[in-house]
Amino acid sequence: MKSDWIVPALVSAMAVGTVMFARMGSGAAGASAGTEQSSSDYKVLPAIKHGNLSVYPVVARTSHDTKQFITLDEGLNSGDVVVSEYGKLRTMIRRPAATPRSAYPSGGPQVNTLALVNNSKRPLILLAGEIVMGGNQDRVIARDRVVAPEGDPIDLSVFCVEPGRWIQEKVNFGAGGGMLAPAVRARAMNQKSQEQVWAEVRHSQMAMALATNPGAGDVAASTPGAAGGSAGGVVGWLERGGTVGAPPTSSYARVMQQPVVAQKVDSVAAPIEEGYRSLMSQLREQSAVGVVVAVNGQIVWADIFASTDLLQRYWPKLVRSYAAEAVVTNTKWSDAGEKSAQAFVDTLAGGHQAVESEPGLYRQTEVRGDGFRVFELTSLLPKTGFNLHIAKAVE
């Protein structure tokens, strides 16, 4: 990387331990996740650290204009995007005359399929790992995709992250569920198995219960009624917010929102978020577009976006997901260091590729490599052709 890529403000950022890597950008097509990347495409600098969480920001040579896209949270909060149990969208489509009867999803609710309509005039980005709350049970988006503006209803592939409920809480789903922690997110994206997702959700909830209050198990075992609930034992105690008599929940999102958990996660996320926000304000023109994440010195994940704007819109939910991973991870400490982070972002090629595409809208490419998977979402809309999002997970 040429030294003139790095602005003077980065000198002070490096002093506080900030890391970035920069990606060379091209114009329309962008690099494919299946294309071998050279080490000169990226630069990794010192990391932002708090406790056992290290975040390596990503700086790109070229940033793309992504203002035309709307995110899931933005769409749900504005009402322009509606997500409902399968077969219940009929009254939520604003263009009844333009939508043929056959386009409406029919049939009853399904665990792994929801119905979505994008009434917005902007294309919608969906990221695997985003949680929607409501309906018969909370769900998580199964894969990255783009949804056309003002289009017909679509079948939305999801996984359940609330196995203990199948009673309608409200007709439509809302935002506020956040993002799955990388370990659970990777399970959904890699294994594509509902049973595997449920297992990882329960494991994560148990680990969070023990991490937020090591004595929770003793409290739950010795307190009448505290060990019951959908999970029982430690998790049952946690699901009641650490108190007896509160209604239990099997919802991943609601467990993460419990005060005792939220406080623990915030204690890790807030310093990282503040440090990164400060750095991005200094480096906005240098195209800060993503992060590489390490927990206990071991690299576990990377999220890279097409623009600083898009990263900033996702950043609050992403940083909390990384913090949640750090809280529940109890592995032997190692020191990945800059060389390992550099190698992680340089290696996106693998021996096997699977491609799903909707012509003129998007292409999603999954690349399987030695000990990792890469998931690349490419916009195929007019005047785009660039990668909207790249996620890399360690297997």
Explain briefly what this protein structure is:
49% of the residues are buried.
**Main β sheet profile:** 9 strands, mixed
What letter string, H or E per element, gives the SSE order?
HEEEEHEEEEEEEEHHHHHHEEHHEEEE
Q: What's the oligomerization state?
A: single chain
**Unreliable residue stretches:** 1-40, 217-234, 242-247
Class by alpha and beta content: alpha+beta
Count of discrete structural domains: 3
Q: Using the alpha-carbon principal axes, give the shape.
A: globular
User: How much is the average pLDDT?
Assistant: 77
Helix content: 25-40%
Number of strands: 18
Q: Tell me the Rg in angstroms.
A: 21 Å
N-end to C-end Cα span: 29 Å
Our count of helices gives 10
Folded structure, characterized:
The protein has 395 residues and is of the alpha+beta class. It has 3 domains: 3-64 and 265-394, no CATH class; 70-174, no CATH class; 193-262, no CATH class. The protein is built from 10 helices and 18 strands. Strands 1, 2, 3, 13, 14, 15, 16, 17 and 18 form a 9-stranded mixed sheet that branches. A 6-stranded antiparallel sheet has the order 5-6-11-9-8-12. Strands 4-7-10 form a 3-stranded mixed sheet. Strand 13 and strand 14 (298-305) form a beta hairpin. Helix 4 (194-212) packs across helix 6 and helix 8 (259-283) packs antiparallel against helix 9. Mean pLDDT is 77; it is low at 1-40, 217-234 and 242-247.
